[in-house]
Amino acid sequence: MNPVEVRGLAKSFGEVRAVCGIDLDVLPGEIVGFLGPNGAGKTTAIRCLLDLIRPTAGTLRLFGEDARRGGVRARRRVAYVPGELRLPPRATAHELLHEVARLRGDCDPVRRAELVGRLGLDPHRPAKTLSTGNRRKVALIAAFMTRADLLILDEPTSGLDPLLQQTFRELVREAKGRGTAVLLSSHVLAEVQRTADRAVILRQGRIIAEGTVADLRGRAAQRVEAVFAGPPPDLAAVPGVTDLAVDGQHVRARLSGPPGPLLAALARADVTAVDIAEPDLDDAFRGLYDDRKEATL
Ligand SMILES: Nc1ncnc2c1ncn2[C@@H]1O[C@H](COP(=O)(O)OP(=O)(O)OP(=O)(O)O)[C@@H](O)[C@H]1O
User: Fold this and answer.
1) Best mutation site among 42, 44, 56 for ligand 1 pocket (most ligand atoms within 8 Å of CB)
2) Which of 28, 77, 112, 227 could form a disulfide with 273 if both were Cys (CB 3.0 to 4.6 A apart)?
3) How many whole angstroms separate alpha carbon 149 and alpha carbon 177?
């Protein structure tokens, strides 16, 4: 039974088609990055999966159970960190975590204390006095202290400094090591690139690309820079070269597909330096993230 199995999910809010028929699977021990620009429909899909809102169409299953009819049983195996946190203002982090542990019954107090230490949280301050990042820490500790088989994390690192983002990535990898599945929603490509096995890219409610992080990076255009001893050759007609920019003897471009034709063109010219950068997910989806452009993947 897969932790997540979604088929044909659609959700409209009146005229607004937030999610337009998506399929989504998360397997045991798999980290799936759920990516997309603001308003792409990530949170809506997650809220449907957790039965917080009702889908317009589609079937949603958690561990083989219908997310609505069998949802209560299935959700015992899920820990969820929402993107927008509302914590009871007067309760301290310690009290909140204690209450979550009591309600769930699958939390280890030693593990909780370890996480409080690793994330550097002062557990004795009331929630209303905590900064955004510290509130996020409370929610992350509440999720990671459970023995959930599926973590659903919506924009989990917003408000965390780079060091804590690193700790977060370690926690996700450790969870995966224990066989926990993770659905990690984010609009930060670098975060997904560093943690996820697979990424699903949503735009305007539709999946526009999905695959392993390595696959998706492989499809990206590489950034190329070259410096010539004299006037640069015209590279505009070289197959695979786009976004050409010439500044004196310095040329910048993007390269898709095999590098042979460009390397041949460079070798014929008086080139003094060449740099071809390994593409990252950011390169892969630069175009896709721009709602004004047509998707090309
Ligand atoms: N309750 C609602 N009523 C009306 N429209 C909504 C509601 N919730 C979401 N939407 C709309 O649905 C679309 C998808 O929003 P959603 O919050 O799911 O996107 P998202 O990918 O999670 O974005 P973000 O990264 O900004 O959180 C947006 O156009 C949003 O305005």
Assistant:
1) 44
2) 227
3) 12
**Is the model's pLDDT at 27 over the cut of 60?**
yes
36 C-beta closer than 6 A to ligand 1 = yes
The CA distance from 151 to 76, in Å, is 11
Mutate to test the pocket of ligand 1, among 9, 13, 154 (most ligand atoms within 8 A of CB): 13
For 30, the domain range is 4-217
Is 297's pLDDT higher than 60? no
Judge whether 227 lies within some domain: yes
Element (H, E) at 200: strand 198-203
* 253 CB-side CA count, 13 A: 24
264 CB within 6 A, ligand 1: no
Domain tally, the chain: 2
What's CA 196's distance to the chain center, in Å?
7
C-beta 13 within 6 A of ligand 1: yes
Q: Whose CA is nearest to atom 8 of ligand 1?
A: 44
47 and 160 co-located in one domain:
yes
Q: 195 with 236, same domain?
A: no
Q: Quick one: 201 and 241 in the same domain? A: no
| CB of 43 shorter than 6 A to ligand 1 | yes
Tell me if 137 is assigned to some domain. Answer: yes
Average pLDDT over residues 114-119: 96
Which CATH number does the domain housing residue 203 bear?
3.40.50.300
pLDDT in tens, 201-248: 998 999 988 998 888 777 777 889 999 999 999 999 999 898 899 999
Q: Are residues 128 and 212 in the same domain?
A: yes
Ligand 1 binding pocket includes 39 (Cβ within 6 Å) = yes
pLDDT tens for each residue of 145-170? 999 999 999 999 988 998 999 999 99
- Report the C-alpha dihedral over residues 27, 30, 34, 35, rounded to 10 degrees: -140
206 domain-assigned: yes
